[in-house]
């Protein structure tokens, strides 16, 4: 039994099948990557898995339990965390507060204690601050903890989201283009970070456009095109798969060639 | 400085400062009004500033508090207890009605809350056997002077009301600040900025909204009870649409993201009509003009705008 | 039976007014994304201006268009002075701005006119018509007819003129409209002008039946909203249907339940509709993108 199992998941928007009956599974301690050209349905697939969209068809299972249709906050309780391609930061908070919010499920003080500022509430806040600081440290943002999140760069915000997801103590982590907007050095750091997270036993599902990174760190790759799964396998298998080259790398190459000419 | 202590000291200092400079009973009465408004507007700060929900019906909750202290003493409930009953009733109603209403967002929520407030206003206006109808009703006497006398402090009733409302406002402000810096407060502010991200972190967004709605309803009800007791009479207009608008405007004018905005907004919009009595005919024009002008020129409100200004001056000072 | 007919007739009459107000909301909402809380004031400006002019001895046939022009100018001023400078303000700012504008306009009317309740004679006199045992003021026919003419004219304008297509393009996608060279600023001005003009016209037609006073706009706006919500925000046909529906519900409540709670009926319906179908009867259902 795999930690995360997806079966025939699908959704349409206005008659167009954005995700069409996709199945795959992802194991604990491994990085499973979802690749495919722009508009293939990768982000939509994440939104289905994490309960942001309600699926038209199919099932999601965590450790064998059917969690289809559960709202995001319940899935979070089951150990799922995610980042967003189009950042979902809390811009009015500091970087530290952003990450502390990720401690929500660990915090046990009640509303009354929070209103009255009782020691139990203050203790929870202190504990969360400690966890959040070490998560910021881990993604290399400790020096920016007190800054308003709105002042961070795009690449920094991507890592802030990772830190925020990490402090939840998740066992399944969905990362939507975590290295977008990062330079080569930062990409390498993100790469190492993802590796380390998986090594701790987390089931990582990754959407990424940087093919070198994907080939380097994935145990398993799922390829989407126009909402459907067109291939699946180990990195070497995907690299040599004709359909993938045609549908994805081909299209990508053609786009690059056009860009070079322009 | 610890934000709780800071809020406590600032608010208390303002209460004391008022008492020191006010020359007459009239000023103390206006001062009490300012603190009563501060209480209900602090509730709006929790709802609007922390969570980002616009309610145009909070005057309804305010009126529930007001009518609780007006009606219940007639059935043998002491005024003090009636205040708590009113607050509990408002909180409960907010929780019950909040579930369905708070699934809505933006304009839909604004209109739904507006409808709720209007319904409460209508009931208060039409059920005259209980509420005295459009003319309102007299509120049984209650004088905090006697409380202060118990601890050996002698003062006029208007002054006693000023101190009582000032102290309750201080408590309200401090609780809101505590909340803002607590686990629940972070969850609420997360919902404000991105409900998708908040729910992905395990925040039950629907529950968070209901909680904030209920808290703000309780603040409004307490303010309503105090107003009814201090004035000695009450009319259904306390539940009116204009009153709901006033509360939100005070919050937004002062700066809805901070409790200090609640204080400043209440101060300005409570004092303004008093200053304008000599041109009472132009009151609407001035009020409407102020609302439009501040929102166009200073969207985040006075306190954050001044904060920015101070920050920029400090930066310039440092770079020299 | 004649009783029911009586209620239907009065429901349709006020419903036509609500429909016009709702149509005004929809025009502005579609063009700018703003729900204009000052919509009721347009109606009052129309009614009060007409009443003042008629009281001065100006014939209706001149007073009515002047009142509509006055309303239209106020609509344009509202856009230029309050909405446009606010730019991309958050929703709560826009709510406060338009409510502030409505209070401001109320204040101006209180000063320019007075605080009295006004009416003038119906365009075709005040002798009630008898109709299957029910009575009907001839002005009701003006109101109902007027609202259909306005709706038809608006549909034609938006569908068949260059300026109207600009409005439609701006409403469906402002960004794309800019890209294809549509003057969205003009479309926005025009939307506010039309919306205010329609509101003022409704006021001119309605005042002989409903009366008016400087502060009558609040309730008018709320009813108009209810109609808009019921029909689904953004849908002109929904505005029309919603307007008549609210008018009828109100008249039935007043007739069969209690006239005390006729205003409550509209709100209860709205709350129920919002709970069951948050997008209204004619609104589109979409999944918010993340
Ligand atoms: N909420 C939505 N409403 C309508 N269409 C959507 C929505 N979300 C995604 N889509 C459509 O689904 C398709 C897949 O998009 P997406 O999942 O973002 O692709 P990818 O992440 O692979 O680039 C696109 O055609 C997009 O327009
Ligand atoms: Mg994507």
From TrEMBL, chain A:
CDD domains: ABC_Mj1267_LivG_branched. Keywords: ATP-binding, Nucleotide-binding, Transport. The keyword Nucleotide-binding applies. GO terms for biological process: D-alanine transmembrane transport; L-alanine transport; L-isoleucine import across plasma membrane; L-valine import across plasma membrane. It holds the Pfam family BCA_ABC_TP_C. GO terms for cellular component: plasma membrane. Belongs to the ABC transporter superfamily. This is Amino acid/amide ABC transporter ATP-binding protein 1 (HAAT family). It comes from Breoghania corrubedonensis.
From TrEMBL, chain B:
Keywords: Cell membrane, Membrane, Transmembrane, Transmembrane helix. Pfam families: BPD_transp_2. GO terms for cellular component: plasma membrane. It comes from the Bacteria. Its main location: membrane. The keyword Repressor does not apply. It is found in: Cell membrane. This is Amino acid/amide ABC transporter membrane protein 2 (HAAT family). It is a multi-pass membrane protein. CDD domains: TM_PBP1_LivM_like (cd06581). One of its GO terms (molecular function) is branched-chain amino acid transmembrane transporter activity. The keyword Nucleotidyltransferase does not apply. The chain crosses the membrane at residues 7-28, 34-52, 81-98, 105-124, 160-179, 210-230, 250-272, 284-302.
UniProtKB/TrEMBL annotation, chain C:
One of its GO terms (cellular component) is plasma membrane. It is found in: Cell membrane. GO terms for molecular function: transmembrane transporter activity. Pfam families: BPD_transp_2. One of its GO terms (biological process) is amino acid transport. Its main location: membrane. It is a multi-pass membrane protein. Keywords: Amino-acid transport, Cell membrane, Membrane, Transmembrane, Transmembrane helix, Transport. CDD domains: TM_PBP1_LivH_like. It comes from the Bacteria. The chain crosses the membrane at residues 7-29, 49-79, 91-113, 140-158, 192-214, 234-257, 264-282. Belongs to the binding-protein-dependent transport system permease family. LivHM subfamily. This is Amino acid/amide ABC transporter membrane protein 1 (HAAT family). The lineage of its organism: Bacteria, Pseudomonadati, Pseudomonadota, Alphaproteobacteria, Hyphomicrobiales.
